[in-house]
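Section 3.1: Structural characterization of target chains.
Under the original work plan, the team committed to producing a structural model for every single-chain target entering the pipeline before any wet-lab resources were allocated. The record below documents one such target. The sequence was received from the expression subgroup and is listed exactly as submitted; it comprises 143 residues.
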Amino acid sequence: MKARRLARSLALQVLYEVDLAGHSAQQVVGRPLDEQPEEFQPAMQQWAGEVGEFAQRLLDLTLAHQAELDGVIRRIAPEWPVQQLAVIDRSILRLALVEMMYLDTPHKVAINEAVELAKRFGSDSSPRFVNGALGAFVNQPHS
């Protein structure tokens, strides 16, 4: 898996635990490897170098701008209250929006990566929902 794709996957898994369990990102990332959930251990072994730096940047920006990101999600998916979205879908949208709004990742790349995350971690309907919501963001005049 390429470094940035792996970093996105790691950041998503941390955001998921932060959102679902209420743990801080520092708690999740700083937990010793042997205390990580078994399925998370192989990914966390990669939390070093370029992968870890990009994942941490995604985490920091997402957490710092969460209220603003949720406001954008309200606009692009008005029929779905943000707090009622599946945790994984909400986290994927936040990550993709961070890349488009703060990191200047090309929209096509951010959307493609978000859809891939949705295919891997979300429900059967997640990829379509994520693609549609992010497409709505791109089509807004101020994006």
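Helices lie at 3-21, 25-30, 41-44, 49-64, 66-76, 87-102, 107-121, 126-139.
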